[in-house]
Design a protein that fits this description.
The chain has 173 residues and is of the alpha+beta class. The protein is built from three helices and 15 strands. It is globular. The structure holds manganese (II) ion (MN).
Length: 173
């Protein structure tokens, strides 16, 4: 936690940067740089999530929130509208699992054989180890959630099939 500025201290800085970006947007700020100030919430948008792009439909961004040596690994994950990750399982022999906390925008998290849960800022979903699930943005909104990987033993991620357009569009029906 020590490496992370508190939201209270960071907020005025982010707001100032956003105003500045709007002023110079047309001249020397790229579209990607401007988006970084508009999305991601308190913790920021981070970098394109290239390492996991093969397991996502659409573009996502990753910002590590925990310090490198913290035992609890926390990322802020930002999804563009309609972006979602594939069905996947966080395996663990002991402990493990994942807690998601929405910090910006609107999205969904679905555990297998359960209705998808709509997520707005402050909403929390606990994903137990071993349970197949996916998470991602709503159709018309960017979405950012903190992802806490809970400590455990024998942990691994198993990436499965994409969430089809039919499955995804059914959420809005
Ligand atoms: Mn997950």
């Amino acid at each position: 936690w020590s490496a992370t500025p508190s939201p209270i201290r960071r907020w005025p800085n982010a707001w100032a940067a956003f105003s500045m970006a709007k002023e110079v947007y047309a001249s020397d700020v790229t579209r990607d740089e401007a988006e970084q100030d508009e999305h991601g919430g308190f913790f920021g948008m981070g970098e394109p999530n290239d390492g996991y792009a093969q397991y996502f439909t659409g573009r996502s961004y990753l910002k590590q929130v925990s310090a490198p040596d913290d035992p609890l690994v926390i990322h802020n994950v930002t999804f563009e509208p309609e972006c979602r990750n594939n069905w996947h399982i966080h395996h663990a022999a002991r402990g493990g699992g994942q807690i998601l906390i929405c910090v910006d925008g609107e999205g969904w998290c679905q555990l297998e054989d359960q209705p998808a849960k709509r997520m707005l800022p402050g909403d929390v979903v606990e994903v137990p180890a071993g349970v197949k699930h996916w998470h991602g943005a709503a159709k018309n909104s960017w979405f950012s959630h903190l992802a806490f990987m809970l400590p455990g033993e024998g942990m691994s991620n198993e990436w499965l099939e994409p969430v089809t357009d039919a499955e995804y569009d059914a959420l809005m029906a």
